[in-house]
Amino acid sequence: MTGRKKKIYEGKAKILYEGPEPGTLIQYFKDDATAFNAQKKAVLEGKGVINNRISEFVMTRLAAIGVQNHFIRRLNLREQLIREVEIIPLEVICRNVAAGSLSQRLGIEEGTPLPRSIIEFCYKNDELGDPMVTEEHITAFNWATTQELDDILAMTVRVNDFLTGLFAGVGIMLVDFKIEFGRVYEGDFARVILADEISPDSCRLWDMVSGEKLDKDRFRRDLGNVIESYTEVARRLGIMKDMPTVIQGGLH
Description:
By secondary structure, the chain is α+β, with helices and mostly antiparallel strands.
């Protein structure tokens, strides 16, 4: 039971508990939804279950193509066993199509394809609102070394290539996504691996034909049908058969 495990950290969408063996943690996916730095909040029944399953699906496939990540195995509907990492305090955002803050900052109409994929960095700090930073800031303040940044950029490009193809194959456009990285130590040597989650909470996903949003923007922008949209992503990826019926209700 979750109640007996030692809580290590609680974020807006997940809780980390002490793992069964050293170097592991249990990542628990909550139903809580937040937006605008947690100024907007709701509980969306079943969201954690869907995100757990989608993140498992994506992380497993990324590992299979050589993108090392913290996922070990799914334990149950809401929990997965992960490798403990030292989180690098950066949100890495990869954008393929103008949307969200990029459109607002630069006045580019949402939905405009970008000339090429753009990778941005934000400093992970809720109190400061996760401000955007440059590679100069990152190396100057020693949040990551130049070598680690090179590794992060290379892995982000691979993740983008893989996810773009994965989603395009089921009629979904990958507009942008946010990922995080952490260090794992092997003796004195630290290696950077992919961490956190990849789900409709952390990606912008639009239906390629209708342009309908199938991601967290449905919650941010009060579009309704959040759970139905997340469920649709899982269905298209072919993982609905493993999903419990608890999710079929959705939001009204």
